[in-house]
Amino acid sequence: MYSQLCPASLWVSLLSLLLLCIPAAQTAKCPQQCVCDQIQLTVTCINKNLTHVPPTVDEITVKLDLRGNNIQELPTGAFKHTPYLTHLLLQRCNIRRVKEGAFRSLGRLVFLNLANNNIEILYQESFDGLSSLKQLMIDRNRVEEIQPGAFSQLGFLNLLSLTHNRLVYIPNMAFQGLQNIKWLRLSHNSLNYLDTEAFGGLFTLTRLSLDHNELQFFPTETMTRLPEVTRLDLSHNPMTYLGEEAVSMAKLTHLFLDHMSLQDLANTAISKSPSLTHLDISHNQLRVVQPFSEGSPMLARLNLAGNPIYCNCYLRPLREWAIRGKVKLLGTCGGPAHLSGENLQAVHPPELRCQSQEAMLKAEFEEATRNIPPPTEEPENKVKCPANCVCELETHHSSCEGRGHTKIPRGFSPNTRLLDLRGNQFHYVPSNSFPGVAQVVSLHLQRCKIVEVEDGAFSGMKQLIYLYLSDNDLTSLSADAFKGLPQLTYLHLEKNRFTSFPKGVFKLVPTLLALHLENNTITKLEPGILTGAEGLRSLYLTGNAIDQVSPRALDQASDLDTLHLGGNKLKVVPTEALSMAGNLRDLRLSGNSIRWVGPNAFQPLQGSLQELYLNNMGMEKMSQNSLAGLGPGLRSLFLESNQLEEVPDLHPLTSLEVINLADNPLMCDCPLLPLRLWIEKVNLKVRATCANPPELRGRRVKDVHVFKACPGGESLPSTPTVTPKSAKAPKATKPKPTHLKNLRKLKVFKAKSKRGPNPKRATVKKTTKRGSMA
Length: 774
Ligand SMILES: *[C@@H]1O[C@H](CO)[C@@H](O)[C@H](O)[C@H]1NC(C)=O
Ligand SMILES: *[C@@H]1O[C@H](CO)[C@@H](O)[C@H](O)[C@H]1NC(C)=O
Description:
Strands 1-2-3-5-7-9-11-13-15-16-18-20-21-22 form a 14-stranded mixed beta sheet, with helices on one face. A 14-stranded mixed beta sheet has the order 23-24-25-27-29-30-31-33-35-36-38-40-41-44, with no helix packed on it. Strands 4-6 form a two-stranded parallel ribbon. Among the domains are: 21-166, Leucine-rich repeat, LRR (right-handed beta-alpha superhelix), CATH 3.80.10; 239-354, Ribonuclease Inhibitor (Leucine-rich repeat, LRR (right-handed beta-alpha superhelix)); 738-771, no CATH class. 42% of the residues are buried. By secondary structure, the protein is mainly β. It has seven helices and 44 strands. The two termini are 53 Å apart. It binds 2-acetamido-2-deoxy-beta-D-glucopyranose (2 copies). One 2-acetamido-2-deoxy-beta-D-glucopyranose (NAG) binds at residues 494-495, 518-519, 543, 754. InterPro entries: Cys-rich_flank_reg_C, Leu-rich_rpt, Leu-rich_rpt_typical-subtyp, LRR_dom_sf, LRR_TM_domain-containing, LRRNT.
């Protein structure tokens, strides 16, 4: 009867329309939680909490987007059903392990992104079979080990990016097999050592990024083996000196050595790099720079900005050299007063004078003595070294680690930069224990059973930046213990026996930025503990026995950025003390016994606080206004493992990226409606579960119906569905642009800072676009 109403032709066209649409959707396989585009052959399954690679993805798919799932482990042959893939996106999937041969069938893949996962080890065959791969991103994981041969099958790779991982060391031939690699990115790791052949076999590499690591010396030998590199970035490494012919790279044109701790550079430092045109040594501590020696390349640009360049007669040769060679100088004079702030490029050589004949002679004399090679540079490359120690000429490292010394050895080369004495039995450190080693930057005295550090123990160590006294038996420090350390920046006193804060010793170390006192037994923080250390940025007090914080404790802490107080005995949030630390960004109170957080507890940190840890505290209640003031600044909030039945309204926290509410006995009833509405609004994947009423125990707050009946809850969807999209037929959508995660500002003291109680377990990552939070 129906057909009688419709003209036959219309019926046919209707039918063919149906045939066009429906069969395409029905016959092509599309996993339930995904969106499939049959024209572009893409499958998108973003933020679906998938625990496996969906097995029903259509074989002809070329782009598979699995960002934001919960895959944990990629098994062998994980993609064997989709051999035509060219693009595979696996960011934010909690991947811990990539098994051997996980990608074995993907011989056509050109782009693989594994960023923001938890991968620790790159196994020998992790990337087997990726014979067409051009770009591989493994940024922001936890890679600390690259097994030999891990990249041996990636003969077509152009770009390998391993930034923001935990690499400390690159062994010989780590990247063997990358026969077409152009750019290798290793920025933001903790690299402090590169084997001589670390980059062996990379004959096509033109660009190498090693910035933001812990390299203390220019790795001359290693770099010399990179014949094609034109750009090398080593900025933000703690190097103090660039030695003779340190940079020997035939094709290098751009070299970045900015933001380091350079105090001097040899005038032949770049003489073996004939192609160099751009040298950036900005933001170091250089006062004088000599013109590069004859035979050095003629630079086009020399960036000296941010150095305390002293524009007197000693700078004149550089200025004249720059004029002769048309080298553009960037930067300004740091002194004397009448030239201070003047552009180097604008200063005429005759203006570069030393005040008087006498001053000039004196300065010349000083300069001359400074340039005399130290007498210890002995003939046949032998380096001075005390008995029962090992000293390396090339790296300027000296070590007597764990050799049973009972007295601090003497007689190290005056060029020593790193002195490692850990694991001996010194018991005490007498005055003036380190004569003749004024160049040491890093001194290790961990595990030496030290009970006392005498006044002036380190005097003369003018370049010392890192001092490690961790894991000793110190109970106190005298006021002059750190006398004569004008540059001390990182001080490690964790795991000692301090029962009170070693107040008063910081008067002499105004340069201190990070102070570690974890795992002592300090019981209270008294007024003015930081007197003298007014520039302190990070204070680590996790694992003490602090039950009292004086309101005046942090009086001098206006620059404090990181305060870790986890694992102490606090009963209340020390709000009043915090009011003196108005620039605090990272506050950790985990593991105290703070049962109740009252109104405005963090108000003084409004505008600065980004990370707040309140987990594992047995907390029973947070007042509705407890988070008042913490608006869009807050990025992470950890509240897991408490006794909360309710949580305050989170709506003002519009920029939250991580929140953890797991392991709280939430009461799923109307008072929790604001949380339920908030979850809906931000579309967060929240693991908050109900504990009460009993019939709802274990259900996700997001999935229970009770809230709909509450006043104000009418707008909630009537049937909370697990996967709203599964009801509809798959629709054709273009793949969305790559989700750009808000890069959180990296901690300046990354490698030095020990983390507090592990907050990673069961964190809930924000998985939606920022726009949806507005
Ligand atoms: C995600 O999957 C895991 C494992 O299947 C499950 O325990 C968890 O409850 C899921 N979370 C959400 C928000 O669906
Ligand atoms: C403090 O002690 C705990 C427990 O032994 C340990 O896990 C942590 O790494 C220690 N932290 C430091 C900085 O020593």
